[in-house]
Batch of 4 targets.
Target 1
Amino acid sequence: MAEVVSPVPGAGRREPGEVGRARGPPVADPGAALSPQEEITEGCRLPVLRRNQDNEDEWPLAEILSVKDISGRKHFYVHYIDFNKRLDEWVTHERLDRKKIQFPKKEAKTPTKNGLPGSRPGSPEREVKRKVEVVSPATPVPSETAPASVFPQNGSARRAVAAQPGRKRKSNCLGTDEDSQDSSDGIPSAPRMTGSLVSDRSHDDIVTRMKNIECIELGRHRLKPWYFSPYPQELTTLPVLYLCEFCLKYGRSLKCLQRHLTKCDLRHPPGNEIYRKGTISFFEIDGRKNKSYSQNLCLLAKCFLDHKTLYYDTDPFLFYVMTEYDCKGFHIVGYFSKEKESTEDYNVACILTLPPYQRRGYGKLLIEFSYELSKVEGKTGTPEKPLSDLGLLSYRSYWSQTILEILMGLKSESGERPQITINEISEITSIKKEDVISTLQYLNLINYYKGQYILTLSEDIVDGHERAMLKRLLRIDSKCLHFTPKDWSKRGKW
């Protein structure tokens, strides 16, 4: 989720003791020359000086991805190991600690797409394995159909869910590192290459690992991209790429944009407006009927989504664009894409809130809208994995708040303890059962007692939830949604 510029607070933060951080080494003498055998090349690793979010100097380990010469002065494009790629940048040699340089292994080759030769020498420890923490508790996960009983105890509400013997607990991938690129729930054993074209990270070449667009002007905002996007090669050398904020077409200069605006009569995304409340509107766009807009939207989104995106084959997708209205028109805030037909119950393929609108509740509003569509369709849904780091945080928060709302709203009838099942929670919220269970585990609400699962809502959980809901001012009003789902299994409707 994007998703997708001001960096998010906490970006680049790592706990003390993590590999790669080296504080305070003396700055290498800029004039100290290296021998030809020790020249800094692509694939080398060494500490690089950077400022963290607390405006303090630190020396994390970084890899040199590219070297260029500007007016006789060398610049190095570095990726900070274990940091998110959006922090990658060009630096000069004054920021390099050359005393701790690690040279690449000559025999290591970096595979590239289409089987072409590696574009740079392999770096040390290139083969980084994705780690998934598997939890194997002595107790099974809660049954999806067993009712949960509710009774008060010491100011807390406890809900007992009967156990279903013989089932293993779902793998727990719910770490809280905000900068983990690969954080996700239920990572499949092999990447799914359909849908939003989940990228196979092992085949990244030097081109796609580097940001190629310097700056984007979109309406009244200037955005600094976080990741590579496959805009035409001739546009990557421009200081600023100009986009029409209504049709998203790109131009080489401000003059080109101004000339385009005299001809462009759009003041909102193409497609049908299916939701409006106040200044917020949602437009449904068919990737086949509005191919040009959909492709331009994907190119923009790829600047802020690293893991996955689709570029040109937009026919199998619907795009739901959220806008904010003023006297000049409907300005894009964010969007999510969705497969017309999904065999895995995905209700979101890619999701992004543009950086100027982040941390204002719009991301959660996009997620809530995707589940409102699922409710109208009579289905449960889940986002396509893996989620981006920011997307995962937004989904965890939305799932937690939605499920806690249901649990805290349960009331006893005739003195009996109210009961609810996992299946019922899933049906009410349209959240897939696996996501309901993983959220209960993430919140640490499940306790095993005398052959039953007890869901315990402590006062801290309740107080925290109530404070969070007071801040959540933006909500979807289902009465303002005008949406009729189509049966996309009939190809004639594509």
Target 2
Amino acid sequence: MSSQATPIQGSRPVTPPLISAGSPQSPVSPECLHPPACRHRDRSPSPMRGYLIPSPLPTRRNRTCSATARASEGPLFTGVCKCFSRSKGHGFITPSDGGNDIFVHISDIEGEYVPVEGDEVSYKICSIPPKHVKIQAVEVTITHLKPGTKHETWAGRVVNS
């Protein structure tokens, strides 16, 4: 056998594809794999953005309108921030009336300051799909900053309280 290709007798001739100025590009061409320059959007400066799996938790961005409306119409609860990690983007609230800790996502925090352990907060609740058995805190607002602690604003400025 030789390493050179030889034409097969009796095969049909291959016609080159028609390329016109208005024809769409092949999905495998490198130009199609990059988004157009006009569709560029700024993203959050998260250092872990490329390594994270999309979260199944209903953040403010992907929560349905009906779930948002139900949460807004619900009662207002109070509690104390148990922990919150800005780098991870979530934390937990201990309810004032006792019970299990409640999850809180960074997108659901209102106000100027990043919550720290011991801050008193008010919040509403929303169920977490798909089974709607667990709940998370939404519309979280810090009502009283814990005295004697340093608080950071979302812009990165540190304030002593």
Target 3
Amino acid sequence: MFHLLLLAGVLLGGYILLTHTLFKRSRCSGNAAMAGKTVIITGGNTGIGKATALHLARKGARVILACRNRDKAESTMAEIQQETGSTDMLYLQLDLASLKSIRRFAETFLKTESRLDLLINNAGVVADGRTEDGFGIEFGVNHLGHFLLTRLLLDRLKEVGGGRVVTLASMAYRWGHIDFNVSTQYSWQFFQAYCSSKLCNVLFTYELAKRLRGTNVTCYSVHPGVVRTELSRHVSLWQKVFIEPVARLLFLDPEAGAQTSLHCALQEGIEPLSGRYFSCCAVQDVCARGRDDAVARRLWEVSEELCGLSED
């Protein structure tokens, strides 16, 4: 009996420790006015993106869901309308695994929408395979697609006062590494590729902030927490068997996972922290690889080349 009680105590203590550290919850207190402002959320039809869209719609923002699946987007818009009463929402088709689709999305948006106040690069994938253009799927979707999208929309962001770019990274960036010789290759090591794509997100934001100095646009990278979403929908069955029980017990729900994104979108006075990394609704220092000036600059240049921007 003593050993059972000891084991129960250890397990309970471990659970409490994890829920106060790795799986810690936070709450956005930012309350910037959003009425009349336009927001793009990639992957806004599910998970963290959906929770983010719901909150911003409730605050009166015009919310544009940028995602692949029209049926899911329309279902999400109907849910948000029912819950908030907002009808100021729009679906625009976007496939981040296709540079052509990204350019088409940006062209349509710039022709039909007069302003952009907030770009939330939320979508992400954990999977193996290639994009339409031959890049590793995680590098192509998680970093390169959002890089191109942001670059194409920057001028519109600069036209309004206080535009922001919020990019969902992850604490997994710590285990990533940048190899400019293999970034487009197919890799079965999907977890390593995912970590590296999240490092790209952190470095992209770090470099973007430098290039935005002197403008009225700021940017932030975000660790949303360890969240129970559809991010791992492409992993194998045996991996899901391992992940699902842990996820149900410990992972945050999408609403909790959206809080730091919302903080960076709505918190007033964080402009001097442009380029920084946020977790649990607070700025956090990053390790050396997440603030390497030379690698960040080179990543930007390589990304421009891969997206064909150096030829524009």
Target 4
Amino acid sequence: MSVATGGSEAAAAGGGGGNRVFFQSPPRSGGGGSGGSSGGSSREDAVSAAAAVQVQQRRHQQGKVTVKYDRKELRKRLVLEEWIVEQLGQLYGCEEEEMPDVEIDIDDLLDAANEEERALKLQETLVDCYKPTEEFIKELLTRIRGMRKLSPPQKKSI
């Protein structure tokens, strides 16, 4: 049994925006406080401050991480997949490990032209289930309404 998200399948229209996460080291304490040496020149202080800024900028550039997916969309997808696994366990009357090989591809359902086509795909997938599947199909179609297909990760240069 598996629930496919289609993350590496065909590209979708809605891609991740230009969101970026930056990692910065905390500011250092002890620069220019009381009790330090009194013999330093202001030129040396300026040079060391400029060097510290360059190091900080370099760290800042190296710490860029591109966010490839919308976290809220991923969270919704995970909750939906967990619900599907739970429901399939109830429909087939067994644990996840014992479940027959049933694959519900959410992105494939989202590609369908309309609700009827989605329902037909789900009925074909659940054809060997001995319990009624109408309520599960209706609830799943309600839950995927408004969801977007996940696009493959976009490679961005730093």
